[in-house]
Structure formats: structure tokens, C-alpha cells
Predict the structure.
Amino acid sequence: MKRGRLLLYILLTPVLLLAQASKLAPELQQPSGTRAVPVIVQYKTGLPATQPGVIGVRNGQVFAQLGVINAVTATVPADSLAALAADPRVAYISPDRVVRGHMNNAAPAVMANYAWGLRLDGTRIGVAVIDSGVHAVDDLATSSAGSRVLASLDYTGEGTDDYYGHGTHVAGSIGGNGADARFVM
């Protein structure tokens, strides 16, 4: 009987180690000391109420909860990542990477430089947006504090304001001036 258990342990140990490693993003699988690593810890179901304490025990610190994806952002010592991945509630641990917007190819992608070379700037061009409505935002204002939206029609009986956001997004993509932009480039 003991021999059977020993064989079972020998067979299952690599499987358990692979299962634990699969919870870590590839770049986190080689821990290097006690340096703090910014991570996103995603859970299988909901956020455990005790999670800040669990990460704190591993000398980590929780910064924010991401309820939509059942996750938290935290910093955790690199040598504690394997122990955190072994927690049965943890689904995956990934690096909390810096994300930036880049619009460096937008003008060439639509051949705007060609239009600018022909001195075309959009003057006297009208565009109709048939969508969920358009909300009055600064992006759609003129320099004289008027609106660039010249007309609105209600086809549904719900009014012309945008309760869903899509129509405003589309109108801003077409004719926005960037006044409401909140990202860093």
C-alpha cells in the first residue's frame, strides 16, 4: 500500500507543479529575489474578503480591486509568487504592465497627408450619424461655443440624447476636436 502511495506522489508531483506554474504568466515563472513585482491577481469566483490579508502575509500590498474581472492589482515579492499561485482561489497572475495609447499611425493609415496636401480640411463636409443618439460633449463643440451637431432626429421615441454611448463615440471619432481626451500619448 505504501509503495502505491509513493508511486502516486511521484506521478502527481510534476502535474501539480505544472498546474501551479500555469497560473503564472510566463515572465513571472522565474522569480528573482524579494524585489516587489506589480501584478494583477485574478480569482476564479469573486474577490475573497480576506485577500488583502493573504497578499499582506506574503509581504505584498493591494492597490485596487478590479471587480469586473474578479481581480486585484498588487505588488508582491517575486519569491512569493509561487505561493500565491498555489492558492486554490487564484485563477491567474499576470504582470501589471504599463499601457499607453499610440496614435502615431492614424493619419497615414487614412491617407490624411494626401488630403492635407490637396488643402482639404473638412470644410463644407457634412456627415450623418444614425446611431443611439449624440450627447452634448466638449469634443463636439465649435470654437465659438456652439455645437458641431447641426441636427438631431428621434426615430425611437426615446429622445436624441445618447443613453448608450455608442453614437457619441462614433460622432467623436468623425468630428471630435479632442477637448475631452483624457489619455497620455
Remarks:
- The longest helix spans residues 2-21.
- Strands lie at 36-43, 61-66, 71-77, 90-95.
- The helical segments are 2-21, 51-57, 81-85, 106-109, 112-117, 166-175.
